[in-house]
Design a protein that fits this description.
heterodimer, A: alpha/beta, eight-stranded parallel beta barrel, 27% strand, globular, B: alpha/beta, Rossmann fold, 6 helices, lyase activity (chain B), hydrolase (chain B)
């Protein structure tokens, strides 16, 4: 059985893990490498590191932490933020990241997805999508430059259309960040994820809104996502990984438990 | 101390394989040189990307014969495993020849309607090969692929995703795993240890 993935997301600024609410008021959570190691040991199935300043800042960002993480953790990890070119992606992958996630640069130049696919293979091309439900129009809209509130823009893309477009261009996975829910811990946006799931034939990761264990059960059972990403519930110790996984298994979901290797046999 | 060499195929997961071995306390050399590879006690053949690109890279480095003549244990990882069989469908021009270290063909994974790529942690059942010593049946390993070697006589371990395919294969000194042991937590570390200790 293919397990549903639990994916802690670590927002990174200047080599420190930070967390804000709805993209604002970032507070420092801790040092990146020990936190990464701690999550891997706790039983996370994958980690995402999101450099929150990079995409909307023109400056060159120091990514040397990528290889320090690759040295210590033994689960897959993805790096997001500030990857604007094939050369940027190549450097991150060479440092030991398993996947790279792009968001705003793909909206600026969608052909970047095709190029990354052809150069590095579909398996490492993750597309991050920031999607906001507009109550006035009743539509899900894609936003870009969400890392910096002063530059955040609504694009002309409706979310499901962009999801179709990125798949056609060779994306290997989609992380759908439901902006209305981000950081508020009121549950994943199951309605939106179900809508996207219908048009998404590649792995789909839910992001935004996790606050309690039931939210994970709901999103896996109701929206059939492949993974669930969460930040503050893990950073703040609101949800314990072992308890979460045991509860998901009891709920009938395929979940990887922390392994115990029997060296004697 | 053993002399462990990772073949520099020019593919992207070389660092993660090297780091995983270094975590086990093993000294590792990454090389594309015939003499260095030939003298190794154990050889790793990593790979991500497409079979056609990897075979082209191996050809350009004149490593085809080098790899085919190795007598010591060789472990192919992911695409590196797929390169060990006779041919692969993963090419725009139809079947491309691989290294033929053992029989077999890489085919598009028959996921029977499940989503591709097959990405994530899946359970593996093994045939008690020394490669899986101390690893429980149904342990989870991390997979990322859309092509696979079907279940056949060289299969050492199986995985099911829509259909059953080879999670590990082996013939004589050549072994390969479809999953990424370097990214498979404790089970993956145990498998790498087993290989290094063969």
């Amino acid at each position: 059985m293919l397990a549903k993935r639990i994916i802690p997301c670590l927002d990174v600024r200047d080599g420190k893990v930070v967390k804000g609410v709805q993209f604002r008021n970032h507070e420092i959570v801790g040092d990146i490498v020990p936190l990464a190691e701690q999550y891997a040991k706790a039983g996370a199935d994958e980690l995402v590191f999101y450099d929150i300043t990079a995409s909307s800042d023109a400056r060159v960002v120091d990514k040397s932490w990528v290889s320090r993480i690759a040295q210590v953790i033994d689960i897959p990890f993805c790096v997001a933020g500030g990857i604007k070119s094939v050369a940027d992606a190549g450097r991150i992958l060479e440092m030991g990241a398993d996947k790279i996630s792009i968001n705003s640069p793909a909206l600026t130049d969608p052909s970047l997805i095709d190029t990354l696919h052809d150069e590095f293979g579909q398996q490492c091309v993750v597309i991050g999508i920031d999607s906001f439900f507009n109550e006035e129009t009743g539509r899900y809209q894609v936003y870009k430059f969400t890392g910096d509130e002063t530059r955040t823009q609504q694009t002309t893309w409706q979310t499901t259309d962009w999801v179709k477009e990125v798949q056609q261009r060779g994306a290997g996975e989609i992380v759908l960040n439901c902006m209305n829910q981000d950081g508020v811990r009121q549950g994943y946006d199951v309605a939106q994820l179900k809508t996207v799931r219908e048009v998404c034939n590649i792995p789909l990761i839910a992001s935004g809104g996790a606050g309690e264990i039931q939210h994970f059960i709901d999103v896996f059972k109701q929206a059939d996502v492949d993974g669930a990403l969460a930040a503050s519930v893990f950073h703040k110790g609101i949800i314990n990984m072992d308890t979460l996984k045991a509860t998901l298994i009891e709920a009938g979901l395929a979940i990887r438990e922390r392994q115990v290797i029997n060296k004697g046999t | 101390m053993q002399n462990i060499v990772i073949v520099n195929t020019g593919c992207a997961n070389i660092s993660s394989v090297r780091f995983a071995l270094e975590r086990l306390g093993v000294r590792v050399t990454v090389s594309a040189e015939h003499d260095v590879i030939q003298r190794a006690d154990k050889v790793f053949l990593p790979g991500v990307g497409t079979a056609s690109a990897a075979m082209r890279s191996i050809g350009e480095k004149n490593l085809t014969a080098t790899l085919q003549q190795l007598q010591q244990p060789v472990l192919g990882i992911c695409l590196g495993m797929q390169l060990m069989v006779a041919s692969s469908e993963e090419s725009r021009t139809g079947d491309i020849p691989c290294l033929s270290l053992m029989p077999g063909q890489v085919k598009k994974l028959n996921a029977n309607g499940k989503r591709l790529p097959h990405m994530g942690w899946n359970t593996v059942t093994h045939t008690n090969s020394p490669l899986f010593k101390g690893i429980d049946q149904h342990s989870y390993f991390y997979f990322v692929h859309s092509f696979a070697v079907p279940d056949y006589p060289q299969t050492l371990a199986r995985c099911d995703y829509g259909s059953t395919f080879s999670a590990a294969i082996g013939k004589d000194n050549f072994m390969g795993v479809q999953f990424h042991p370097e990214r498979s937590g404790d089970a993956g570390a145990q498998l790498l240890t087993n290989f290094v200790n063969l």
